[in-house]
């Protein structure tokens, strides 16, 4: 199946995003920070559970989810804008 130029470019950029997403997870500074963060999260959750304050755990989980969703949406919009810019530039 032949793809038109725009669809080919879109798929290429999405593939590149997927590759970079996997690559960034293995950067030493990211791995170290992620491990430190994970340890802190476990400790904070233990403290909260010991104080029987489950609502705070739910709040922290919701804040994290919200941040992830916002960043993902912004990144995807950036990719879409990039595709439009490249398409426009190539049409000139």
Keyword list:
mainly alpha; 0% strand; elongated; 92 residues
Topology:
Elements: H1 5-24, H2 28-50, H3 54-91
Helix pairs in contact: 1-3
Structure description:
By secondary structure, the protein is mostly helical. It has one domain (13-91). It is built from three helices and no strands. It has helices spanning 5-24, 28-50, 54-91. Helix 1 (5-24) runs antiparallel to helix 3 (54-91). The longest helix is centred in the last third of the chain and has 38 residues, at 54-91. The protein is elongated, with a radius of gyration of 20 Å. The model has no long low-confidence stretch (mean pLDDT 81).
Helix content: over 70%
The beta-strand count equals 0
Oligomer: single chain
- Give the amount of beta strand, in percent: under 5%
The count of domains is: 1
N/C terminus separation = 27 Å
Which structural class is indicated by helix and strand composition? mainly alpha
Radius of gyration: 20 Å
Main beta sheet strand tally, sense and closure: none
Task: Report the mean per-residue pLDDT as an integer.
Answer: 81
Give the structure's gist in a few sentences.
The chain has 92 residues and is mostly helical. It is built from 3 helices and no strands.
